[in-house]
Amino acid sequence: TLLGTKPVVYNALNIPKPAEGQPTLMTYDEVSTLFHEFGHGVHGLFSMVKYPSVAGTSTPRDFVEFPSQFHEDYSLDPDVLANYAKHYETGEPIPQDLLNKMLTANKFNSGFNTTEYLAAALLDMEWHSVPADAEITDVNAFEKEALAKHGIDYAPVPPRYKTDYFSHTFAGGYSAGYYAYLWTEVLAADSFAYLQTKGGITRENGDTYRNLILSVGNSKDLMEQYVELRGQKPTTDALLVRRGLKYK
Hints:
12 helices
């Protein structure tokens, strides 16, 4: 690096303190969060660029969550599960029928969740596409027209955030960028599914992912790096399967 230093990365995870004499056990949500943050951690740890300003997680918002969401899927990889998903007293692995129920429950209401998110993301884009000299006098009317334009004006599934309390897009750093959460999930699901076809957890796959994605920070064109990893631009197919909206 420019300063000749090495990255120092640590993850902090808040886990409720158990009752006295009881072990500290983790919910699946906590495990998933741990894997997610680990993805951010290795993104910084494996950075191999000269300038700190483009190192590690110093990438655009619509890319930075890619490695973290990518690693979430490994929390449910059979080879990884076998190492940690065990009964704390007997050491028995999690029963397959229980795991199947958990996976099914994890996709419950996914259609609603996806639609409300897309509605908010599209609304964000519409607000940031308004010409500078335009006068908006009726916020609710603008919102309704914007959603209808995209065929997503459906009262039973309103936007996750309506305009008058959409702080992400006006004060939270996500101006014209709220779509990023779902876009990076597209990248994560697509690349994870692809690497599974190449053998899953192997040293070769790990080195390829590290060299093409984790190590470059924001020093190269990130879509070009993705295409070099994947062999093509991403599609939404794996995302739809991941969310239970499409069968393999």
